[in-house]
Write a structure and sequence with these properties.
Rossmann fold; 5-stranded mixed beta sheet; TIM Barrel; 4 domains; alpha/beta; globular; 6-stranded mixed beta sheet
Length: 555
Amino acid sequence: MACAKHYALNSMENARFTVDVRIEPRPLHEIYLRHFKRVVEEGVASIMSAYNSVNGEYCGQNYTLLTEILKQQWGFQGFVMTDFIFGMRDSKKAALAGQDVEMPFDMIHRQHLRRLVEEGEVPLERIEDAAFRVLRQQVRFAQGRDPKAYTLDVVGCEAHRKIAREAAEKSIVLLKNDGGLLPLKGVKKLAVIGKLAATPNTGDGGSSNTRPEYVITPLEGLQEALHGQAEILYADGTDPNEATRLAGEADAVVMVLGYTSQDEGEFVSPDSMAELAKNFPPPTPEELPIAQKLMASMTATNSVPNAMPPGGDRRLLTLHPEDEELIRVVAGANRRVVVAMMGGSAIITENWRHHVPAILMLWYPGMEGGHAFADILLGKINPSGKLPCVFPRRPEDLPYYDINARTITYDLWHGYRKLERDGVMPAFPFGFGLSYTTFSLSNLKLNETALSTQSTLQCTLDVTNTGSLPGATVVQFYVAVPGSRVERAPKELKAFKRVELQPGQTQTVRVAIPARDLAYYDPHSGWTVEPATYRLIVGQHSLDQQALQAEFNIH
């Protein structure tokens, strides 16, 4: 059963147990709930509420979120579960708000819920509703499935390893490739520099640890791909002099730098955990092993005495200062330098990106990431990943942020919407990603230019691979409403389509955009499709200067 989490506005990690997010209805529905609404419409089985508060009430007992919006407005038929251990604070409030299951066991409900029902403070109908929601999904997912057919040997099987490799291949983003340095050709001696080149790094630990049987590191991927073809010189980068020496000896350099779960991810300090635990009953003997395992995973600290717990909200948006200095000295010893970054979100590169000809964003590429990385560097795979977030030039270009905030206000403005509204150029735009080939867009056509609020815009255009290599791009469809009666982003992504083409091949792409997807949220009347003139902008990223445009009206 798929579970979508954490509902809602869980965008801060260090303060997730204590922060109250203040937000008006419009940004709540347009920005922070829209993806939850989409998965509900697609049939998700369960929703996990978040630890934080929204507008003064914890998400796990927030009637507006759980009942008014999720179950009444969206018609959600599945069940709601709490986040684990500290996901709700008040049994009565949670039950009445629409919380269906306390996880991972009934710590709060065990003390209070039976009495609350017997005394009429929580209606029996609410308990029956929660029970039926769980049973409804159990029956739904039992249809036509034999549990014996799903055994542990499926985990990490060959078919799934292929999918992991494909996911890495398609998600790695080529950000810079001056002079066509990539793909690497004719390299007989390659220097690979950086601790993360030889460190299994799949992202978060704690309760997010996927425990793969193996992880192919970037260094291992390159060693296997270049076996018998090139000599690989490796240095972890802790000694800049050694790294510089190896770089000077090599035909090209690959540097793998960035973050691990020590820098970003799940965060709970032992002190905050102990403070929270005061308000909760101890687990039963049967529950104790589960509780101990959960607490151990959530409070795992690094081995440095008196160190901050690992993870949490990133304290730097740049690479570590020592990594940035390493890039500069290595780039001084070799002009053919490729920097590959690992991390979960945007990284500011201003201090060094002009010193190197090639940059890739690996994210956390998974158990087969090293193979995918090597295939892209050497040209076996043509990169096609696109940025799902904007990479700014300065932290000041982003929304206000306080890592330990007790209250914070969210509005409509973040990411590419905010930067474009403010007239700020990013380092790398939303939706950006290079290829080893080139593409052109042409012949944009609309099925009609006058639509009703119930209509669907149908559009077509031709995409041509104008280069010499097979490749894929993602065609992106943005919509602007220049004369809107409400404040709107300069443009917003409304659809996209991945296209794979051989050299010289042209393919016609068709996309449908329902008028309802162009609505804004009115606090009084709900989703509102505005009669206005709209502009369709079709390109390969949000600031594509070659983008095609067309206008249409909704009446």
